[in-house]
């Protein structure tokens, strides 16, 4: 039983049947749960997941929060170590946006085995010198 860290795009795609990554996100989450993987999500990624629902209503936000609890996915708080690691990643890889660097740093600091994302613009784990394997949907 390992730890799989989720990027916001995976949750967003899972929730939106019209999203291009919906089927892949659903399949990836099902596989992780079938393999008894523990799931986690950076607090910063949770915020990303909640922007669209927050535009609709507090009830929509609660629906997303409930879904994440039911997966179950633990929320990893941002701390000074993660912030520092994210800054270092962002400084070395200029194409990497800070929200993405926060997700990557959280996965690495949490010692996740896998990170699932819908983002295809990230450098490779090898290029970033990360131990976490990255699965792109």
Care to describe what's here?
With 137 residues, the chain is of the alpha/beta class. The chain has helices at 8-15, 22-34, 43-56, 58-70, 80-92, 98-109, 125-128, and strands at 3-6, 38-42, 73-76, 114-117, 133-136.
Low-confidence stretches: none
Characterize the biggest β-sheet. 5 strands, parallel
Name the average pLDDT.
96
Count of helical stretches: 7
Q: In angstroms, what is the radius of gyration?
A: 14 Å
Give, in spatial order, the strands making up the sheet with the most strands: 3-2-1-4-5
Shape: globular
**Strand coverage percent:** 15-25%
Q: Termini distance?
A: 21 Å
Q: How many strands?
A: 5
Order of helices and strands: EHHEHHEHHEHE
Q: How much helix, percentage-wise, in residues?
A: 55-70%
Question: What structural class results from the helix and strand content?
Answer: alpha/beta
């Amino acid at each position: 039983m390992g730890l799989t860290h989720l990027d916001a795009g995976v949750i967003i795609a899972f929730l939106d049947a019209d999203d291009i990554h919906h089927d892949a996100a659903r399949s990836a989450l099902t596989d992780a749960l079938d393999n008894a993987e523990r799931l986690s999500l950076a607090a910063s990624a949770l915020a990303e997941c909640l922007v669209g629902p927050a535009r609709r209503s507090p009830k929509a936000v609660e629906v997303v929060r409930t879904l994440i609890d039911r997966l179950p996915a633990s929320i990893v708080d941002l701390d000074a170590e993660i912030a520092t690691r994210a800054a270092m990643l962002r400084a070395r890889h200029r194409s990497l946006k800070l929200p993405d660097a926060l997700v990557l740093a959280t996965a690495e600091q949490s010692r996740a085995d896998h990170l699932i994302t819908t983002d295809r613009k990230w450098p490779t784990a090898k290029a970033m010198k990360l131990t976490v394997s990255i699965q792109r949907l």
